[in-house]
Design a protein that fits this description.
Elements lengths: L2 H32 L7 H39 L1
Helix pairs in contact: 1-2
């Protein structure tokens, strides 16, 4: 396996793993917002919503990056044959 191909495959796997972790954290924070509690202040809710939204946005971005790496790998594989 070519060094560039291996590097691209490793990046694709890393992007996907980071995206899944960020997705899980974002969902966990969102659940903290929608579950009712008397101890939460308005500021706590706003911080959790902003954090949840940013984690989910970065997760989507990383899934897109992973898909682009996968497409590059497929192109490299097709061009070598």
């Amino acid at each position: 396996m070519d060094k560039q191909t291996k590097s691209l495959k490793d990046k694709m796997i890393d992007f996907k793993q980071f995206a899944v972790v960020l997705l899980a954290v974002g969902v966990f924070l969102y659940l903290g917002v929608i579950i009712p509690s008397d101890a939460k202040t308005e500021m706590d809710i706003n911080i959790m919503m902003i954090s949840s939204t940013s984690f989910l946005a970065v997760s989507i971005f990383l899934f897109i990056q992973s898909k682009q790496c996968q497409l590059k790998l497929m192109d490299m594989e097709n061009s070598s044959k």
